[in-house]
Amino acid sequence: MPDRATPSIGDLAAEVRSKNAGPFWVTMELFMRDAAGYRIVADPAFLNETVVADLYRVAADDVRMFRIPSLNVVKISFPRPVPQGSLHDRDMHAGQHHVPLALLPVPEGTS
Question: Which residues on neighbouring strands pair with residue 35, listed in sequence order?
């Protein structure tokens, strides 16, 4: 359980969401409240392909990150663990995939 005294990405964001990007990919979007929050999540020293890969148990080489400073948005895509609608799919619309990312603690002194 995360320490709620430590702010998370979700605390700095206006919205963190996930959705299907076709039957084989998930896309997550971090809509940050302001440029300061964006600088934190856009910093590759904090949030990068390896961090996402570890959170979602996918290969880092398969993670795609798009940083959009003019919108204060970071978009992340990676292959779904199982195809959408398959027997073992537990979230057909990928609507809950964002939760581990939203709960990721922000490094001390950056929020």
Answer: none
